[in-house]
Write a structure and sequence with these properties.
Distance between the termini: 26 Å
Shape: globular
Radius of gyration: 18 Å
Number of helices: 9
Helix content: 40-55%
CATH architecture: 3-Layer(aba) Sandwich
Strand content: 15-25%
Mean pLDDT: 93
CATH topology: Rossmann fold
């Protein structure tokens, strides 16, 4: 991972949702190293505070803000706390329940429970809408902004037993393309990073316990390994910089070659 960005996004103020751990944490840390002041958002104050302290110990600037991105009132309160932003990274989300008890069960759609659909749609799509909607007017008024949403190859390519999750992520990509067309002339770019399987959390624990499982999973990846949480961070910094002012409405896979973009 690149450690010295030499103020690449210096002077910018960024919010990374769901950044108390994992991919969001890695993006927040890298953005701070690139010179941004970063708001670390999570529903868990202790986790967010830990990341803020990491960034400060690394010489960066960070503050925490606790909010559930699925709650419009909480998002409005978060926006009042942070004030206008230059950069939004919509990272908060949930996946499928393959290796633990979180997320949506990994079952065929015909066997799924409709009660499981709404929470997945809310955090992976509606949360993106709420956060973007809260901060976009100030970006338009100031004539500069970056909106980046973390999505999944389950929405870009399509995956069995991940139909609802993939639908939510695909909808977030559609939102990105439409919004990019709306606000490009106001100096705002809107893009996505699409991820493959990341070696984090329950999946990391599962492959640590079963090397054969890791061998099976990595067989689909030309680079021969699962993703690491810091893999998307350098691209996130680039897409949120002045250098990327002519890149908008795009979905960039960071997936070890699993599903190449054409």
């Amino acid at each position: 991972m690149i450690r010295d960005w030499s103020g690449f996004i210096g002077g910018r103020v960024a919010l990374v949702t769901g950044s108390g751990a994992g991919i969001g944490r890695a993006i927040g840390i890298q953005m701070a190293r690139a010179g941004a002041e970063v708001w670390i958002n999570d529903v868990d104050e202790a986790r967010a505070d830990t990341v803020v302290r990491e960034i400060e110990a690394d010489g960066g600037k960070a503050q925490l803000v606790v909010a559930d991105v699925c709650d419009p009132a909480a998002v409005r309160e978060m926006a009042a706390t942070t004030g206008p932003l230059d950069i939004i990274v919509n990272n908060a989300g949930t996946g499928v329940r393959a290796f633990d008890s979180g997320g949506i069960p990994l079952v065929p759609f015909a066997e799924s429970d409709p009660a499981d659909w709404e929470p997945v749609m809310r955090v992976n799509l509606t949360g993106v809408l709420h956060v973007t909607h809260a901060y976009l007017p100030d970006m338009i008024e100031r004539g500069w902004g970056r909106v980046l949403t973390i999505v999944s190859d389950a929405g870009r390519k399509g995956e069995r037993r991940q139909v609802v999750y993939g639908a939510a992520k695909a909808a977030a990509m559609g939102f990105t393309r439409g919004l990019a067309a709306e606000v490009g002339r106001q100096g705002i770019t809107v893009n996505c990073i699409a991820l493959g399987s990341m070696r984090h959390g329950a999946l990391a624990a599962a492959v640590d316990a079963d090397p054969e499982l890791e061998r099976k999973l990595t067989g689909a990846y030309p680079v021969g390994r699962l993703g690491r949480v810091d893999d998307p961070a350098p691209l996130a910094v680039l897409l949120c910089s002045d250098a990327a002012e002519w890149i908008t409405g795009q979905v960039y896979p960071v997936d070890g070659g699993y599903a190449p973009a054409l």
